[in-house]
From TrEMBL:
This protein's name: DUF11 domain-containing protein
Lineage: Bacteria, Pseudomonadati, Verrucomicrobiota, Verrucomicrobiia, Verrucomicrobiales
SUPFAM superfamilies: Trypsin-like serine proteases
UniProt xrefs under InterPro entries: Peptidase_S1_PA (IPR009003)
Highest taxon, organism lineage: Bacteria
Source organism: Oceaniferula spumae
Amino acid sequence: MSLHTLIRSLIIWPLSLGSVDALAIRVYDPDRHDRFLNFPTAPTHNLQFMHAGFNLTGVGWWTPPGNTDYQFTMVSPMHYIGASHASPGAGNVLRFLSLDNIIRDYTVADRVFIPIDDDTSSDLFIGKFNQPIPSSHGIGFHPYLNLPNESQYLNRAVILLGKPARGASQTTATITDSGINDTRVISMPYTIASGGNDEAYYEQRDSGSPVFIDQNGTAAIIGVNSVLATVTTNPPIGPPVTTGYVNFANFVPHYVDKLNDVMEVDGYRMTKAIPGSTTLTLTHSPPSSVIRAGHAFSLELNLNNTGAIISENVKLINMFPDGSIVTGASGSAWFDESSATETRARRAKIDSGNDTDYTLTLTFPTPGTKVHTVTYSSDQTPLGPSTTQNFNLEVIESFISWTANLVDKSASGDDDMDGVGNLLEYVFGGDPTVPSRQVAGTTVSLLPTYTNTGSGHTFSFVRRKDFTQRAITYSLESSTTLENGSFTDASALINNTQTSSINDDYELVTLSLTLSGDERFFRIDVELNE
């Protein structure tokens, strides 16, 4: 018996338009072996398909004018792999079918031919779309089966897919280098004389179709179809007789590092079917200064991989109360995936013992206690109670939030036409919507008052109790002329200060003054430095 692998023919064969038209299954049954009904014109899922128990939505096909026989397999929400000699270039469209039978089309942005060790191109390529497929589209992607050594991939039952969107089964036998630039391949022999009814061998245009192993109910990819070899015997009399075939698929685990090199520039890595476990630790650092409603501020997140192995395909989700305005979210090697309700980001990896920073800039329009929910995960740190943390952020009222519902929000605005501008109403306790010269809800004078008791002079004004937090300063000034620019600091005239509470928010400040013989005019100068 001899094995003939006519490499020149095998390289050309998948690209030719020969007469064979399907994955060669020993006993073909359309109910059992067809993935879809009415493929490719109006495909829907065949619920009797032998591999219907697996989510294979990540296996798509080339749309016309490309050949619909060629299939490609998603390995991230953005990347797919196939055979180099049957790879669509930029601008081509690949088609997928969601579990609810919705056709999804995506445009090819780029492709990279994966090199072998000497940088010669292998027969494996990776392509990507213009943007990641949204999870709402219902198109999955496949992990690869990561086993400790090559021998553990042998003598394993596999899921074999081919044209036109058909499925079969096979068993792996050897891992070797093929005649296509020494591409590393895994073999699956087919004997004509005997074997299971679901066994199959590749035909023309099966190139790129995936080979999976069932890993706990998940179709984990180990290869993509590359070439076919013919097994012949030489009888004593007559020409050689074909006794079988050997399917060869590009052995994907061998090229994972090179695939990762391509994917990491987009914030992804190949997903392991057996990911292992590590620990991510989150540090949440709000600003040291007061957070004011209506004012932008930044907070820092630090995600640390404290475990012993790499953390891959890291996800970070930040959620804030409705109405929050996020204007910035960034960090080194983080990629934004934000939606209208969530600030999302992804990162290809965090190595063991390393950490990464992420900065958020946002505004809360209203005061109060705001809950910041942070959820983080990776392939090695699945989502769970320990990966979601809530942080309370205390937000104080500001002049911006206090005037938010007014028509004229400026410092001098006076919607209620009481002659007292917004800023003075804000610092002295007025209600900008009610014409009044009294502190809201009281009979206390809104504006400062001066009293000459005969035995002394006092000057009283209303002050916010939290004026320091609000960045308000109240300063006594005096002038002898009332001319512009004539008012100067009068704090030296104060000999005593008394305060009395008006309500929870305001207090009355009474200054006892020591005056000289000159006539003076007093005022409270108010500054707001939010």
